[in-house]
Amino acid sequence: MGGQEQDPASASARARTLLEHLGGAGNVLGVAHCMTRLRLTLRDRGPVRHDAITALPGVLGVVEDGMSYQIVLGPAAVAPVTEAFEALLETPQDSPSGKPAKAVLRRIGNIFVPLIPALIGCGIVAGLSGLLVNFRILPGLTPALAAVSGGFMALIAVFVGYNTAKEFGGTPVLGGAVAAVVVFPGVAKVDAFGQEVAPGQGGVLGALAAALLAVAVERWCRGRVPGALDVLLTPAVTVLVAGLVTVYGLMYVAGEAAAAIGTAATVLLDYGGAAAGFVLGGLFLPLVMVGLHQALIPIHATLIEQQGATVLLPILAMAGAGQVGAAVAVYARLRRHAEARATIRSALPAGLLGVGEPLIYGVTLPLGRPFVTACFGGAFGGGFVGLFSMLGDHVGSTAIGPSGWALFPLLRGDHGPLTTLAVYAGGLFVGYAVGFAATYWFGFTAEQLARYAGPDRAEAPDPAPGPPALTS
């Protein structure tokens, strides 16, 4: 199920088995998914058969963060299993509970993660268009490719507004309608207290704020407008009030926030690139484990919208390189750990393409120290990419989601494609090498080495016959 699950019937069977081990439909308050994980809000952890879930084929790991119960299934399996899981629930809605900060992060993920496939697709088309321009090939086609790749980004605010209203219990199309004000060319004619309003000002942050306001206004109206007039007055008041506040206030505030994010990212890498890359690359794996990486999604989206690429993602992707290097070291060092070696053989291709959960939850995290040494690999890889940012070779990604080798088609830099690819590839190589070396020499306890290191006993040759050993 982990990386190959596609069959709807099989997905339904897996979902039904998971639901049984989770205590039934009555124990599930909410369900959602990200790129690799089925995220569940449970009523009670008592009925959950944790060991049975982790033992299921295709379950790559389980993460309990205090608020949600997350089952790692892999990128190909998680969507069909989630769909089948929702179908088994009488009320498949996601009710927030637990810590407010984690609830906010989960909601941010639910807003932006569904947009990632479009970001990837449009990013790759934009990269292809850039290559054609650089090499002066098919000049008549590049305007069409630019339109195909840029259309989504020009209207991403509408999708953010739609998903925001949907996530927070409002009418999705009203959230999208209010957010559309942010990118509507006609706002250029508006004089907001002596300042001109620019189309796109505030970007995804403005769209997010506009949709949140629309949800609040809609809820206020629903409780006060008579039922006979609700279908007319509630949408009109929602769009009018939220739209005017967006034009005359939210767009300016969000625009200043977006500009600050862009400036901060530029200054951070221009003046502290190596150190910043070291810290970001080293801490990203722990952030992924607890779900805090979701907070970076709006920042990535803002940078892509504002600058055409996010300079943070190639640095954060180095965490996956450290993970791969550590896994290879485990394979080389613990020759008698059959389970870990089998997992590495099956999960390493996905790890090279940036899907790190199978290696994290199946190999490095259970062993302990290799997870820490993998973070060192990510830190040095991030420091390498950050160093080149200080030297003027910024490397960015035109989309979010992929990492590892899968990020190559999405890269954009200041000094042409060859330099950009070389810097990123160099970072990957450093991450692989440091992750491998740190894990090989410092990644295991004495007990682990005594138990699993050395040649495989099943493959070790029998001792050569000879005279008995002499004893004193």
Task: Write a concise keyword list for the protein shown above.
two-stranded antiparallel ribbon; about 475 residues; single chain; 8 strands; 3 domains; Gyrase A, domain 2; 4-stranded antiparallel β-sheet; disordered N terminus; disordered C terminus; alpha+beta
Describe this structure in words.
- The chain is α+β, with helices and mostly antiparallel strands and 472 residues long.
- It has 3 domains: 8-98, Gyrase A, domain 2; 114-261, no CATH class; 281-450, no CATH class.
- The chain is built from 18 helices and 8 strands.
- It has helices at residues 8-21, 50-54, 75-88, 100-112, 116-134, 142-154, 156-167, 172-183, 203-222, 227-290, 297-307, 313-316, 318-333, 338-352, 357-367, 369-390, 416-442, 446-452, and strands at 28-33, 37-42, 61-64, 69-72, 191-192, 195-196, 395-397, 411-413.
- Strands 1-2-4-3 form a 4-stranded antiparallel β-sheet.
- α13 runs antiparallel to α16 and α13 (318-333) packs parallel to α17 (416-442).
- It is globular and about 75 Å long.
- The N and C termini lie far apart (60 Å).
- Residues 1-6, 91-98 and 457-472 have low confidence and may be disordered.
